[in-house]
Predict the structure of Beta-glucosidase.
Amino acid sequence: MFLWGAATAAYQIEGAVSAGGRGPSVWDTFSHEPGRVRDGHTGDTACDHYHRWPEDVGLLAGLGVDSYRFSIAWPRVQPGGSGPANPAGLDFYDRLTDALLAEGIVPAATLFHWDLPQPLQDAGGWLSRDTAHRFADYTALVADRLADRIPMWITLNEPFVHMAFGYATGVHAPGQVLLTGALPAAHHQLLGHGLATAALRARGAERVLITNNCTPVRPASADPADLAAADAYDVLHNRLFNDPVLLGTYPGLDAYGAALDCVRDGDLELISAPLDGLGVNYYNPTRIAAPDAEAAALGLPFTDAGITGHPVTAFGWPVVPDGLHELLTGLKARYGDALPPVYVTENGCSQPDEPGPDGTVDDRERIAYLDGHIAAMERAAAEGVDVRGYYVWSLLDNFEWAEGYHQRFGLVHVDFATQRRTPKASYHWFREHIVRRRARR
């Protein structure tokens, strides 16, 4: 069965950061540090989903989706990052799961979407090998409670982005600027994935995935220096996180003058345990050139040359639907039979959406974006890529990390002052699209 769905993440929508025994996460700490998030915004309230979840489940039911991808907040389940479960935290996700199932919606739970409990960060975060083991313990607590009803589990969301933005460049929590010193955060996240996969399997989980943010990498020219730079970037962004999971090997990091000396015997066997799917988040391709002076001074073997000649979203990201086809067929070409079924677990765009005088939100740019990307995905499927699902990012306008509340990705407009939800034109379009696709089965 192909799954049409919508996605969210805990810190971006839940709010209620001190309710029900929840502990602090790295994003609570980071967003309260001056200058970290645009205009000082925090996720303290976000969409208040913690209190308004029945309304949001109603929106999902009205949308007609097959599945809902949400994340479980580690600090809500384990406030200190270790020890026994917080019953009130698990109760929240228990109620949400049952409500989704009552509406015929398949729950797809992501276990880590960047909200590491702050006590674990204080002990080293993902730079510490111990965090991978704490992640497995947390996974076991969640699975003991919910694996009998949640059929689809995603261990990690976008470990590349969390490593690059959180540990290498510092623009996301925990805000560390380590450049290539961030590489242990890649391996320890993947080790956590492997250990969590084993914990899920032991508790009867039906489907286990990891979600990687992937981008087709295009060299700026045919110059050998640009080709080498593009290959180096592809290694860092894509292969560093896909190869160990699918092939059981790490790509060489020679272009970075670095090595993953934190890998121990047996780690790759854990990381490469068979999966039931690969989650792929796609937003745009990346065009890479040989390093300019600034990049070279930082020890980076590439420069982002930017994608030109395409419309852009409110975030400034280029809108390139064909890039999704390029990505999916490229994954198939690279990994062949090692590639499990693929789920597009995020795809969407930010637009400056506001209700008009009649109270409706006419986000026709988002409709065109989704229409083009779904067509590109379906073309890849027709060419032999086993695609099993497509999730729009996002159900709701929400807290968009370092951008605060300035980027609106939702099918549903949220007035953050009143928490009023208003389905946009894209919500109605996507509902009708799902109906049409079902009629073709």
About this structure: The mean pLDDT is 98. The domain at 3-439 is CATH 3.20.20.80 (TIM Barrel). The radius of gyration is 21 Å. Residues 411 and 427 are 5 Å apart (CA to CA).
